[in-house]
């Protein structure tokens, strides 16, 4: 007996209709992204749609479609913009005099610069959840992980981890999972609770990195 046909969800296009070049169009596209960030925080992903976005921006749905074909395209643009800011942070870290830094100082600096980027993105938790759960945005989630792991593996080498690249990437993945999830928690905590959570994060990072810094070189 033949297997029944399977139905696969068709992915929506996440490409903008056209790249805005005029100043007015650039401002309007950014306004759409800003309003969507606010709505993502207040109404959530499931109830978010282009009609609500257009109403809050003060334009018709037809006008909105001149910029983005659907809500996933807007979320994709938001996610890509956030990834660009993460990439800039990683480039900044590579410019540090890592070979001369003490481990405690490095951890203080790396946590501070990354947390600022998470706090600057409104509704970052809901955006990251969308990047993970929405098929059209999954590429961004994967790109984020690959980028952080590859760059931090290089950072750890310069800090003095005498490990094979695959082992440094394993440690970098652990670093990613611990820091990423913690930052998403901290941005929604009050100041006192956030400070305590960050202290614990720094303690965990210190423990892991100190252990590997003190181990002999491995193949």
UniProtKB/TrEMBL annotation:
<dbReference type="InterPro" id="IPR050109">
    <property type="entry name" value="HTH-type_TetR-like_transc_reg"/>
</dbReference>
<keyword id="KW-0238">DNA-binding</keyword>
<dbReference type="InterPro" id="IPR009057">
    <property type="entry name" value="Homeodomain-like_sf"/>
</dbReference>
<dbReference type="InterPro" id="IPR041669">
    <property type="entry name" value="TetR_C_15"/>
</dbReference>
<dbReference type="Pfam" id="PF00440">
    <property type="entry name" value="TetR_N"/>
</dbReference>
<keyword id="KW-0805">Transcription regulation</keyword>
<protein>
    <submittedName>
        <fullName>TetR family transcriptional regulator</fullName>
    </submittedName>
</protein>
<feature type="region of interest" description="Disordered">
    <location>
        <begin position="1"/>
        <end position="21"/>
    </location>
</feature>
<feature type="DNA-binding region" description="H-T-H motif">
    <location>
        <begin position="49"/>
        <end position="68"/>
    </location>
</feature>
<keyword id="KW-0804">Transcription</keyword>
<dbReference type="GO" id="GO:0003700">
    <property type="term" value="F:DNA-binding transcription factor activity"/>
</dbReference>
<dbReference type="Pfam" id="PF17918">
    <property type="entry name" value="TetR_C_15"/>
</dbReference>
<dbReference type="GO" id="GO:0000976">
    <property type="term" value="F:transcription cis-regulatory region binding"/>
</dbReference>
<feature type="domain" description="HTH tetR-type">
    <location>
        <begin position="26"/>
        <end position="86"/>
    </location>
</feature>
<dbReference type="InterPro" id="IPR001647">
    <property type="entry name" value="HTH_TetR"/>
</dbReference>
